[in-house]
Amino acid sequence: MKRYLILSVAFLNAVLLPGFLPAQAAEVRDARYHIVSDGTAEDAVALLKELELRFDAYNQLFRFDPSLLESPLAVRVFHDQGAYELYLAGRAGEGIAGAVYLHYSRPDLRELVVHRGSPGAPDALAYHAFVQFFRAFISEPPAWMQEGLAVYLAALRYDGDAGQLRYEENMDALPLVQGLDAAALDPQAITGAGTGNRPEHFQALSWALVSFFLNAQDESYYRTFLEVFMALSPDAGEAANREAAARRIGRWTDPGRLGQDFRDYVAARKTFPDLLREGQAAYTQGDTAAAELCFLAALGQRPAHYAPYYYLGLLAYGRGAFDEAAAYYQAALDYGADRGLLNYALGLNAAARGWYTEARDRLEAAALADPARYAGRAADLLGRLPEHDAP
Q1: How far apart are alpha carbons 274 and 84 in whole angstroms?
Q2: If you count Cβ atoms within 10 Å of the first and of the last residue's Cβ in the chain, which end, N or C, has fewer?
Q3: Model pLDDT for residues 287-326, shown as the tens digit of each residue
Q4: Which residues, 6 or more positions from 334, have their beta carbon under 8 angstroms from its beta carbon?
Q5: Which of 126, 135, 133, 132 is nearest to 156 (CA)?
Q6: Mean of the pLDDT values across residues 228-243?
Q7: pLDDT digits (tens, 9 = 90+) for 251-281
Q8: Separation between Cα atoms, residue 169 and residue 223, nearest integer Å
Q9: How far apart are CA 379 and CA 360, in angstroms?
Q10: Are strands 164-167 and 156-159 parallel, antiparallel or unpaired?
């Protein structure tokens, strides 16, 4: 079991913010993070566990050597909004809700500042926790890599109850990027943009380019992207690292082909709602193979959403794969689908398997969950079910 060192239940005088922090607070650290918080030690440890999971997830891609960290990454936590805003007043992160990473030339001044009470804290933390991690190893990374990767990896959602991260690809920027003209979808223009000359919609374009490098069917793009990490210098400025990244990409890719492949990739991507609509249309038209591909793609984007499981259950039921249908239906129910609908579907499925006892239980549950829709239909089916399960 991983051990965390709770250094104290009070801030050191050097980090006290008079008038806004309670006399008792928590300070927790391990080899990679040092958290000071105005909350409880239990909350600080919970945040530390999340950050450690994020660190490990990021490093599956980067393979940075954690021993290169001169000191643990600093995290300051506020539960009081006024204290959070006062602490950021006059700093670069002023006005940013939820969380912000403050980067300085002096490593000992760098810190991730978090407001745990903010509604936007989970999303902001997911974004800025990556920026802190990345810039701990590459102080001045290329602007497009920082922005694109931060948005892409912010889709790692933390499930506190399960104590694990889940990736649900964030496609919010896709419609915007797909609406831009071909000139905007120029990888060289995106990778050549510095901190002071970013094109319009730079963050969305950077996300799209990172997504392309990581997911393109041609795996040579993925390998090229990994090689870019090795070309970056921990101590070089942003411009030098940007040029080094561009040289490495240019060494292994043809600019014209890269641009066309990138534009084709963007045009072919579909959002979660798009995939559901296309799957439903294909299902209605009887094209079950196309429907299944759409619903599986939707499941890949949103593995914790009930809808793909429900539709995949329908398809499995339609081809007589009742065990598979039951598993999909149950997953849809577990992820929050309408209890009346899913219990009714599970009841029909159980009846088709000859499991009449379970079918009764499910149909009665459907009628109880939504009497207006299912009481009559359930009663009709219950009256026709055999008493005993099929042999």
Answers
A1: 39
A2: N
A3: 999 999 999 999 998 998 999 999 999 999 999 999 999 9
A4: none
A5: 126
A6: 94
A7: 889 999 999 999 999 999 999 999 999 999 9
A8: 21
A9: 10
A10: antiparallel
Place of tokens 């006059």: 90
Q: How far is CA 122 from the centre of its chain?
A: 10
Residues in the chain: 391
pLDDT at residue 121 in the model: 84
Fold of domain 5-137: Glutaredoxin (3.40.30)
Indicate the pairing of strand 33-37 with strand 5-8: unpaired
Which residue matches tokens 């040289």?
247
Strand partners, 167: 156
d(CA 259, CA 190): 11
SS (H, E, C) 141-170: CCHHHHHHHHHHHCCEEEECCCCEEEECCC
**Nearby residues of 1 by Cβ (< 8 Å), 6 or more positions away:** none
| CATH number for region 272-382 | 1.25.40.10
Q: What is the pLDDT of residue 274?
A: 95
Please identify which residue in the block is written with the tokens 């802190």. Answer: 132
| 37 DSSP assignment | E
77 three-state secondary structure: strand
**Predicted local distance difference test score (pLDDT) of residue 24:** 56
Cβ density class 139-157: b for 16+ within 10 Å, e for less:
bbbbbbbbbbbbbbbbbbe
- For residues 352-378, one letter each, b for 16 or more C-beta atoms within 10 angstroms of the residue's C-beta and e for the rest, the string is ebebbebbbebbbbbbebbeeebbeeb
Contact 385/360 with Cβ under 8 angstroms? yes
Check if the beta carbon of residue 356 is closer than 8 Å to that of residue 382.
Answer: no
Q: Which residue has the tokens 């896709």?
A: 174
- Residue 201 structure tokens: 């919609």
Q: What residue ranges do the domains of the chain occupy?
A: 5-137, 174-268, 272-382
Is residue 86 classed as helix, strand or coil in its secondary structure?
helix
How close are the terminal C-alpha atoms of the chain, in Å?
48
The greatest distance separating any two alpha carbons of the chain, rounded to the nearest whole angstrom, comes to 77
Residue 207: alpha-carbon gap to chain centroid: 13
